[in-house]
Structure formats: structure tokens, C-alpha cells
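User: Last request for today: this protein with guanosine-5'-monophosphate, please.
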Amino acid sequence: MNYFEPLSDVIDDRSVRQVHELIENSRQILITAHLSPDGDALGASLGLYHFLKSKKKNVKLMVPNSFPYFLKWMAGSDEILVYEYNPKAARVIFDHTDLIFSIDYNIPKRVGNMAFLLEKSDAKKVLIDHHLFPGDIYDVVISYPRISSTSELVFRLLYQADKYEEIDKTVAECIYCGMMTDTGGFTFNSNNPEIYLIISLLLRKGIDKDRIYSLVYNNLTEDRFRLLGFTLSQRMKVYPDLHTALIWLSLEDQKQFSYNKGDTEGFVNYPLSIKNIIFSAFIREDEELVKLSFRSQNTFPTNEFAARFFDGGGHLNASGGEFYGTLEEAVSFFENGIGLYAEKLKNEIN
Ligand code: 5GP
Ligand code: MN
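Assistant: Here's the final one, the structure of the complex with guanosine-5'-monophosphate:
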């Protein structure tokens, strides 16, 4: 028996060809990623960015707003343009672009205030994403929700076009970071054997995966570490019958621990460590809205829950949404929601 299986062609050949032709024929490329970009959004975007730069293409990378400190080690992160900091300059860049990539998001709304620039642009548009329901503004759609990260799709896009040899260590590091963060360090959504084949191919580029893990996960500030302890001990409610746990933080709580953007990233995963908890929610009060994050185990559809109650979406086991009202209202709306899903939640564990 032959244990070595080559990587399968996940992306359809036509799309691979089309994207590489568009790249070839473009003079100015703009890569965009979603609001509050996470490790996958940045890893996939920066991986593609460095690859295109190595091919001497003119390329820029723009995100709607800032990103967390534990992703700033990635090469090129200081070259990322942040729309919010200079919307006027962003307009000019969109006007001078003939190819736009939408990375790790499905529809323009996910780039917030930047959306109108994307929608009205005459540039060719390519979507590379793994969320459900891709938008209809794209010339090429590479959308595979069963693939665990967009970074993996960027790798496949290059690999399938026979460009593996042209991937350098910097590109490999960014792609690895995205694959790692969207699977919680390969602890969920990560049973596809091909993921490990890709990791092996990335390791051959000289990346230090243990160092990348530490840079992302063992990089907490003291304030953030104490905030985590406080949240779990003082701001958690468990609903044992519904196999659900909720954590929340008010603006006041965040102020007390000198909250910075990204400080609560990953908090929502912790309640899943409790035996028999399969649904975890994190509700964080923000200046103008209340932000919600959901995680689940097994088959509880957090994305359906997010869409139904909080105008949100995402993946089956990881999603988010928004609420316009007070923190208390958001909590009671959430409790009402899990009440309506009681049967489903109870049936997740028999
Ligand atoms: P997180 O909880 O890490 O902020 O988000 C997890 C996933 O949920 C993201 O990858 C994204 O797909 C999705 N998500 C988070 N917030 C929203 C939202 O407000 N709207 C939609 N449609 N998806 C969201
Ligand atoms: Mn992603």
C-alpha cells in the first residue's frame, strides 16, 4: 500500500488558470481582507502579497481597521494600509487598481466602510474564501467552505499552478500562521489529512512552526492574562442543561484591564474546556455596539444561531454577530435564543 498521496486538486482548474492570467495581465493589484482581520485573513493576504511581490508585481494590501498585536510579527505587517486611518488615500488606491482580491470574506459588507469602494470599482475581482454564500460581484470565485482556512486555499492556488518551487520562507510563514490560527493550533476543524501534507510542504521551506506558535499564543501581556482570569472567574455563566456557557465583558471591565484591540481574541474558546459544554458565547460591549462570538463542538450550528438572532454568520463551529442595544439586553436576547434551541442543544450530548 502506498501511504503517500499527493495533494488533491481542490480548486477547479479553470479558476486557477483565470486567477494566474488576471495576475499576469494586471498592473496594480490590491489585496483586501475583512474587518478586524484575524490570523487567517492576514496570513492568507500577506502570503499572497509576498508571493506577488517576489514576482515583481505592484501590489498593495488594505484592511478596514487595525489588527491585534500578536499578528504584528508577520513580515510586511507594517506595510499594510488601514482604511480607517486614511479613507481619502484609500479611494485613490482603489481608483488606480485593476485587480482586487477579497480574502477570507464572502461579501462586501464584511469590509465595513470600505465596502462602497469595492462595489463601485471597475477592477477585476477575485474572491478567495471559505465562508458560505459568496457574493455576486466577483469575476472569479474560489470559495470552499469545507476547507479550514483561506490560507490553505492560497497555498493550493499556488501549488496547483505548479508554483510550489517559487514559494519562499516568508510566504510559507504567513500561510502557516493562517492555517494554524483558523484551527486553534490544529485543535478543531483540522481532521483533513491534506492539512498535514501541506504543513510538511511548508516546513520544507524552512519555517519554524514552534516559533510561530509561540509568537501567536505565548505572547500575552500581563494585563491580558489577568483579564482572562477575571473573565473566567467573574464573568461566566453556565447553563448545564443546555450544555452552554456564556462569558461577557462590559466596557468598564475592559477599561479596568487597559483593554487593547485583540486582547480578548480566543477567550470564547475557553468555556469549551468544561466537560459537557458544547456551545460557548462571548459577549463584549463595544463603544457603539455589542459584539458577539460563538464557538461550538459537534454539530451545533453557531452560524445559523448568529444569523437568526445577531445579524451575523460564519462557520458551523465558529461564528459571530452584532447587537445594537445594551449589554444586558444582548445577554437576555442570547438567553432567549438558547431557550429556543434547547432541544437541539440537549440532543448534542446524550
Ligand atoms: P470571531 O469570533 O473570531 O470574531 O469570528 C469567528 C468567525 O465568525 C469569523 O471568521 C467570521 O467568519 C465570523 N464572524 C464574526 N463576526 C461576524 C459578523 O458580525 N458577521 C458575520 N457575517 N460573520 C462574522
Ligand atoms: Mn478564515
